[in-house]
UniProtKB/TrEMBL annotation:
Its cofactor is NH4(+); K(+). Catalyzes the phosphorylation of pantothenate (Pan), the first step in CoA biosynthesis. It is an enzyme of class 2 (transferase). Pathway: Cofactor biosynthesis; coenzyme A biosynthesis; CoA from (R)-pantothenate: step 1/5. This is Type III pantothenate kinase. The keyword Cell wall biogenesis/degradation does not apply.
Length: 249
C-alpha cells in the first residue's frame, strides 16, 4: 500500500499533478500544457523526479485529447474513462474532471454532496445518497467573465480578480464591473446551495478548483448564512482518482 504513483489531470488551461504513496497524497503542483512529454517529470522543489522510462504508474484523466496523446507511450499509463467512474446516471458528455471531483467529494465527505468547481468554467454538480447524479449547472468561471467583458467591449478595462467584494452599489466603472460579476455570481450560487440543502439538508457543500478560496472568502465577506456548511478542498479530483486506482493495488 506504499506504492508510489502519479496522478495527472489534464485540464482546460493547466496540468494538475499529484504524487501518491499508496493512499497518501504527498504533493500536488500545476504546470502549463506541454508541446512534448517532459523528461524527467520533476516536482517543483526538486526533491524528487521521475524518468519517462520509469515503471512508476501514471494515472491520467483528461479533457484535452491532444495533451492525452503525449502520454500514450508511457510505460504504465492508466487512462480513466467516464464508464470507470462508479456514479449513476452520468450523461455521456459530462466532463471527466467534473465526474472525478464529484466522486472524490462523495468518497471523502460522504454522499449526498454538492460540488462547486471554480475553474475555467464554474460548475455545480449534485449527487444523492445513492451515488446518483441529480444534475447541475455550468457557467463561465470568474476570470473568464472578467476577461470576456473587457475583450468584447471597446471601453471597459481588464480587471484582475479582487481580494474584496467592494460595494454593491459602485460609483466607478472598475468597481461596477467587480460588483456586477461577483454579486451576481454569488447570489446565483447561493440560490443553488439553498435549493440543494432544502432537498438534502444533510449534504456537504464542497468548493474546489482554482477560485475555490476566492469564492469562500467572498461568501464570508457577504456574511452568507450557510458559510458553516462550506468546505474548501482543492484535491477532490485526486481523491476521485485515488478511489479508482487504489482498487488495483
Amino acid at each position: 500500500m506504499n506504492q508510489e504513483w502519479l496522478a495527472l489531470m489534464i485540464g482546460n488551461s493547466r496540468l494538475h499533478w499529484g504524487y501518491f504513496q499508496g493512499e497518501n497524497l504527498r504533493h500536488t503542483w500545476d504546470t502549463s500544457h506541454l508541446k512534448e512529454v517532459i523528461n524527467p517529470i520533476r516536482l517543483p522543489n526538486d526533491y524528487l523526479f521521475f524518468d519517462i522510462s520509469s515503471t512508476l504508474p501514471l494515472v491520467v484523466g483528461s479533457v484535452i485529447s491532444s495533451q492525452t496523446k503525449l502520454w500514450k507511450n508511457y510505460q504504465k499509463f492508466y487512462f480513466i474513462k467516464l464508464e470507470d467512474i462508479s456514479l449513476n446516471n452520468l450523461y455521456p458528455t459530462i466532463g471527466i474532471d467534473r465526474a472525478l471531483a464529484t466522486l472524490g467529494a462523495g468518497e471523502r465527505y460522504h454522499f449526498p454532496c454538492l460540488v462547486i468547481d471554480g475553474g475555467t468554467a464554474l460548475t455545480l454538480t449534485g449527487i444523492d445518497s445513492d451515488r446518483t447524479f441529480i444534475g447541475g449547472a455550468i457557467l463561465p468561471g470568474l476570470k473568464l467573465q472578467f476577461d470576456s467583458l473587457s475583450s468584447q467591449t471597446a471601453a471597459l478595462p481588464n480587471i484582475n480578480l479582487p481580494n474584496k467584494l467592494g460595494d454593491r452599489w459602485a460609483n466607478n466603472t472598475k468597481n461596477a464591473i467587480i460588483s456586477g460579476i461577483l454579486y451576481t455570481i454569488l447570489s446565483g450560487i447561493q440560490r443553488f446551495i439553498d435549493d440543494w440543502l432544502n432537498k438534502y439538508p444533510e449534504s456537504k457543500i464542497i468548493l474546489t478548483g482554482g477560485d475555490a478560496e476566492n469564492l469562500y472568502n467572498y461568501f464570508q465577506q457577504d456574511n452568507y448564512e450557510q458559510l458553516s456548511n462550506l468546505i474548501v478542498d482543492q484535491n477532490l479530483i485526486f481523491w476521485g482518482m485515488r478511489s479508482l486506482y487504489i482498487l488495483q493495488l
